User: Fold this.
Amino acid sequence: MQPRLTRRRVIAIAAVAAGLPLPGRAEDAAPLTTWTGQVLGTVGSISLRHADRAAAERIVARAVAELHRLEAMFSLYRPDSLLVELNRRGVLTAPPQEMRQILDAALRFAGLTGGVFDPTVQPLWRLYQAHFAQPGADPAGPSAAAVDAALQRVGHRHLRVGRDAVVFARRGMAVTLNGIAQGYITDRVVDLLRAEGIAHTLVDLGEARAAGAHAPGRPWRVALEDPAAPEHPWKTLDLVDRALASSGDDGFVFDEAGRFTHLLDPGTARSPRRYRAVSVVAPDATTADALSTACALMPEAAIAATLRGLPMVEVHLLRRDGSVATLCRA
Assistant:
């Protein structure tokens, strides 16, 4: 049976504040220009305020070209992507700056989370995909021997990132950037928009980042979806110069019973299914994205320990029983 894709991730942006701009400076009252389109396996959007509609559309076109350029580097599904080349050959020579940056960030978050966030978990994903694609696949999952063999090819410490090359230290390794690429690309798009003088924007590429407010005195407002009841948001958050990312293991399941999901613990090779949803608010989308992936796999005590070194980060949890918790550095 093929894995069932219901949604690549739990998308946090269920509703964005809209309406007429409030009184304020001419810049703040500028009309809203919005682009929507397919990117990174989901529907993304870029919303910005600019007094000149034609100029706004040119800026948006530049931003869209940039996000597609980066997506082409980091995609697991394009045969010509740099990530596919790295996974095929085990080495990538003269890696561009963006590839080094995103891999360095992934390794940094691997260290911060004690290896729970691990970009080299892709061999486990391939194992479960191949297993459940077989007719009559054992619902208990792959054999212990197959899991052990895959785990031998997992480990962020065996990924070497340098100016001249990216190298796998073990044969058969593979990297996925699905837990960080949306956030990284979101940050790069926001940087581009700011360089163009845009002070008020919300970029939502599956993970969202707000620069400035929606309008004077009004933040960008988002509602967090409950995967079990999408019509009933479990929390509403306001964003101004902050980023938001969400993860949930209902987004991609390999088996009919839903025991095995895209959120695989690199230590146990299992899907712990601890929470219905996890949302992280952070200063940048790269941080929010990586931490939302890791925190979905971690018990609350481990999340709290990780946050001690991360000021200005909040983790919002929707527990399995429907209760809600918010964790941040004390």
Notes: Residues 6-76+179-251+274-328 form a domain with the T-fold fold (CATH 3.10.520.10).
